[in-house]
Amino acid sequence: MIPESIPNRVHIVEGDITREETEAIVNAANSSLLGGGGVDGSIHRAGGPAILEECRKIGGCPTGEARITTGGMLRATFVIHTVGPVYQDGEHGEPELLADAYRNSFRLAVKHGIRSL
């Protein structure tokens, strides 16, 4: 059963994450934080060099953790970059690391007063 408060707080949107008008977006990043393929690369390209510059200063992100940068030229003010595990066999802490990636992303949002993610 879905709690009554959820419909007023959670909205699922299908579309281009780089065009979302929200305070922050979450990027499924690689541990270097220097961009890559897929959505990660799209976020870096659309956001421009400011995101990459901040990511270089951060110096990477371990699996399960999260880091925050400017949104650069995105509509979103911030990008929360988080690194999920590469699935091996489910016996190398993958479920816990994935849960940590979500938890740490939400913690950063709360710490920075982000209300739309």
Q: In words, what does this structure look like?
A:
The model has no long low-confidence stretch (mean pLDDT 92). This protein has 117 residues and is of the alpha+beta class. The chain has helices spanning 38-47, 49-58, 94-111; strands spanning 24-28, 66-70, 78-82. Strand 2 (66-70) and strand 3 form a beta hairpin. The chain has a single domain (11-111), classed as Leucine Aminopeptidase, subunit E, domain 1, CATH 3.40.220.10. The chain is built from 3 helices and 3 strands, in the order E-H-H-E-E-H. The radius of gyration is 15 Å and the shape is globular. It has a 3-stranded mixed β-sheet, sandwiched between helices.
Order of helices and strands: EHHEEH
- Architecture per CATH nomenclature, i.e. the level-2 architecture: 3-Layer(aba) Sandwich
Structural classification: alpha+beta
> What is the CATH class name?
Alpha Beta
What does the main sheet amount to? Answer: 3 strands, mixed
Summed over residues and divided by their number, the pLDDT gives a mean of 92
> Number of helix segments?
3
Q: What's the Cα radius of gyration?
A: 15 Å
Query: In percent, how helical is the residue content?
Result: 25-40%
Q: The CATH topology is what?
A: Leucine Aminopeptidase, subunit E, domain 1
Poorly predicted residue ranges: none
Strand content: 5-15%
CATH homologous superfamily placement: Leucine Aminopeptidase, subunit E, domain 1
Strand order of the largest sheet: 1-3-2
Structural domains: how many: 1
